[in-house]
Design a protein that fits this description.
The complex is a heterodimer of chains A (about 325) and B (about 250). With about 325 residues, chain A is α/β, with parallel strands linked by helices. Chain A is about 30% helix and about 30% strand. In chain A, strand 2 and strand 3 form a beta hairpin. Chain B has helices at about 35-50, 65-75, 95-105, 125-135, 185-195, 205, 240-250; strands at about 1-5, 10, 30-35, 55-60, 80-85, 110-115, 140-150, 150-160, 160-170, 170-175, 200, 215-220, 230-235. The termini of chain B are far apart. Classes of the chains: A alpha/beta (about 325), B alpha/beta (about 250). The interface between A and B is large, with 91 and 84 residues. Strand 13 (about 180-190) of chain A pairs antiparallel with strand 9 of chain B, so a sheet runs across the interface. The complex binds flavin-adenine dinucleotide and adenosine monophosphate.
């Protein structure tokens, strides 16, 4: 049996949802040990046990919340000496990226980043990685041991196995040399009622929305459908909406039941973050926009006219039923 | 303050690049300075303007990557270093970072600025590996950087807001596109760039062994495409059709 680690990223005492998603694949590849560090680590380890981790190491020392990357790298590198897993899985999210890169360098092994799939092959591990903004998918083999792979959020669907992990306290002693990148403050700006990553319906706006003043039109539609609002990078960079709303390669990955792209052209870097949505609807005044070639329903027309009318129709229909 | 900015040359995001049969980009294809690194250079220049010092650009790539460095020099950076070596062709993030680290170490920089991820590679892994190899703390995903003496304060973009981070120099930071709008090179800048130094180094010069690759690309395929569905003109019935669609998808 291959020995695997899944690193469960903690933030503000909560486990990042990607860890449970990764568990769904990891448990098929071997015996999984989960590792969680920082406030809430024990509860998170127990949760990963429910998702198939056989064992877990947890440590709730505040040093992991107060300093970026280095304390966690030290803890993982120390534990590696004792456990030497074959494969270490991280999520492709900010904190995990910082830690995985440092750990790979510390262990001298390199790593595979931004993967959408990982599997065992010929006694080793391979991963699927989107290239050139998602136009191509490469199959990449890890040559070193341990193999380290970072998995994009929403690559797998989380599901519980009903198991329990044997949870061990991870002994750590973090020296001052690793207490350098200090977290002074964390500010939550997103006040979304429905979280973008978890929403069953996502309505995203792009440059075709014309300006920030028109985004409330999308909020209203989202409100009527019980969904969340996303955005293309073009409008995030333009300062119309915050980064927390960005969908795509350098933003969030979403996989809702319905994704409505409004005034978004459908650049690869955007679609790589939403193309596994169950149903895609595009509203665009250009029938030739790339998004039309992947939408289940493409509507050619002016978003600023269609969206308010659609909101009214949805509300009317809901009122009836 | 000595500032090193890592810069990568990438396929032009604005030209449609077609891959050759062997999954490499044709050598004659249009290449540009990575748009993300352009933001890094701009931030480096602004910090130099505020605090004095020098901005050094370091790139790993084929000889033509000198053009990317030259572009940064014409924006105002002081000099460049290009690491180029046959055995670096197809280098992965680990090897790239090892080569960059060797060149940057010799510079004794106070601040190393990288992009969060490159346009083509998009691994986002060169910066953290580089930070570890250089023995530096890392402040990542910066949308704002403030320097006060040896103290560096960063406003870090997060999935649901931001964080304030602090460290003391020397430090490595990665910057997002929100950090600064890159300036255009002036004619004077372009002229001045011609006489600025671009040192070329091989792996041998740096004492780096290329070694075995950490990863191998076994195959490359077109991404799975979704099939196009119905495309309708909005003739007044579009809204009804969308509502029906939403009902079929059971969200209404
Ligand atoms: C390294 C890198 C990473 C990137 N990461 C991301 C990412 O994470 N997410 C992302 O989204 N992008 C990303 N991009 C950018 C991406 O390449 C595109 O530039 C971006 O997605 C375009 O946004 P857009 O569709 O809103 O704008 P545009 O491409 O300008 O498209 C606007 C669309 O609106 C339509 N339109 C205009 N007016 C109307 C109207 N009244 N009604 C209806 N339709 C209208 C137009 O026909 C057009 O199709 C990245 C790029 C790079 C280089
Ligand atoms: N070949 C390279 N030469 C110089 N800098 C690089 C190179 N590759 C990556 N970088 C730097 O690392 C950042 C992230 O790139 P990547 O890790 O490839 O996604 C880039 O924005 C650059 O600043």
């Amino acid at each position: 049996m291959a020995k695997l680690w899944v690193y469960g990223e903690m933030s503000e005492g909560k486990l990042n949802a990607t860890a449970a998603e990764i568990m769904a694949r990891a448990r098929e590849l071997g015996d999984v040990t989960a590792i969680t560090l920082g406030a809430g680590a024990k509860a998170a380890a127990a949760l990963l046990g429910k998702h198939g981790a056989k064992s877990a190491y947890a440590n709730e020392d505040s040093v992991f919340d107060e300093f970026l990357a280095e304390p966690a790298t030290d803890a993982l590198a120390d534990l590696y000496e004792k456990e030497s897993p074959d494969l270490i899985l991280f999520s492709f999210t900010s904190d995990s990226r910082d830690i995985a890169g440092r750990l790979a360098a510390r262990l001298g092994v390199g790593l595979i980043s931004n993967a959408s799939e990982v599997g065992a092959k010929n006694g080793g591990f391979t991963a699927k990685v989107p290239y050139f903004g998602g136009a191509k998918v490469a199959s990449v083999r890890a040559n070193a041991t341990p193999a380290i792979v970072l998995i994009r959020p929403k690559s797998f669907e989380a599901s519980e196995t009903g198991g329990t992990a044997e949870i061990k306290e991870l002994a750590v002693s973090i020296g001052d040399a690793s207490k350098r990148a200090r977290v002074v403050e964390r500010v939550v700006e997103a006040s979304e009622k429905v979280k973008l990553e978890d929403a069953k319906v996502v309505i995203s706006g792009g440059r075709g929305m014309g300006g920030p003043d028109n985004f409330p039109l999308l909020e209203e539609l989202a409100g009527a459908l019980g969904g969340a609002v996303g955005a293309s990078r073009a409008v995030v960079d333009a300062g119309w909406v915050p980064y927390s709303m960005q969908v795509g390669q350098t933003g969030k990955s979403v996989r809702p039941g319905v994704y409505i792209a409004v005034g978004i052209s459908g650049a690869m870097q955007h679609t790589v973050g939403m193309k596994t949505s169950k149903v895609i609807i595009a509203i665009n005044k250009d029938a030739e926009a790339p998004i039309m070639k992947m939408a289940d329903l493409g509507v050619v027309g002016d978003a600023l006219k269609i969206v308010p009318a659609l909101t009214a129709a949805v509300k009317a229909k809901k009122g009836k039923s | 303050m000595k500032i090193v900015v890592t810069v990568k040359q990438v396929p032009d995001p604005n030209s449609s690049h077609v891959l050759e049969a062997d999954n490499t980009l044709g050598r004659d294809k249009e290449v540009v300075l990575d748009p993300g690194d352009e933001c890094g250079i701009e931030e480096g220049l602004q910090l130099k303007e505020a605090h004095g010092g020098e901005v050094v650009l370091v790139s790993m790539g084929p000889e033509r990557a000198k053009d990317a460095i030259r572009k940064g020099l014409s924006m105002g950076a002081d000099r460049g270093i290009l690491i180029t070596d046959e055995s670096l062709s197809g280098a992965d993030a680990y090897l790239t970072a090892r080569a960059l680290a060797a060149a940057i170490k010799a510079e004794q920089a106070d601040l190393v600025i990288c992009g969060t991820e490159s346009y083509d590679g998009s691994t986002g892994m060169v910066p953290p590996i580089l930070a570890e190899l250089l023995g530096l703390p890392q402040l990542t995903f910066a949308k704002k950087v403030e320097v006060d003496g040896s103290k560096v304060k960063v406003n870090r973009q997060t999935a649901d807001g931001h964080m304030v981070l602090e460290a003391t120099t020397p430090v490595l930071i990665t910057v997002t596109a929100a950090i600064a709008e890159p300036r255009y090179a002036s004619l004077k800048g372009i002229m001045a760039a011609r006489s600025k130094e671009v040192k070329q180094l091989s792996l041998g010069d740096l004492g780096v062994e290329s070694g075995e690759r950490a990863e191998t690309i076994e195959s490359m395929a077109d991404a799975e495409a979704r099939k196009a569905g119905a495309v309708i003109e909005d003739d007044g019935t579009a809204v009804d059709q969308i509502v029906k669609f939403l009902a079929d998808a059971k969200v209404l």
